[in-house]
Specification:
The protein is mainly alpha-helical and 124 residues long. It contains 5 helices and no strands.
């Protein structure tokens, strides 16, 4: 993404970096992260235009993000069995067959392994 208007391009690059970082860390959630970034930017600009201190606003956003991460970690559940992995992958992909394939791949490579997905040139 590269826009000709400098201010708009800066915003687009910021949102793009949010999506890339989210994908790199979590492997999912880029749409949610992009929408959150857009909302934070829009509301942040409104607040600054209304006289809010941008430094204090940034501190507040950072504190809220830290609290959100803390709460998410407290609610997180470890997933380790093939059945649990298949369930999560099925929900994410909306396809039980894909869920089973992901679980099988994870079982082969282990928790810290890497699975590479490539498009096949055949119908198999």
């Amino acid at each position: 993404i590269d826009l000709s208007a400098p201010f708009e391009n800066l915003g687009a690059q910021l949102v793009k970096s949010v999506a890339v970082k989210t994908n790199d860390i979590a492997g999912d959630g880029t749409t949610t992260a992009t929408l959150l970034a857009q909302a934070l930017i829009r509301q942040g600009l409104r607040n600054v235009a209304a006289g809010a201190n941008p430094i204090e606003l940034n501190k507040g956003i950072a504190a809220a993000a830290e609290k959100a991460v803390e709460l998410l970690k407290a609610r997180a559940t470890d997933v380790s069995s093939a059945k649990e992995i298949a369930n999560v992958a099925t929900v994410s992909s909306r396809d039980p067959e894909v869920g089973e394939l992901v679980a099988g791949a994870m079982e082969k490579v282990g928790k810290d392994g890497v699975v590479t997905v490539e498009e096949s040139q055949t119908i198999d």
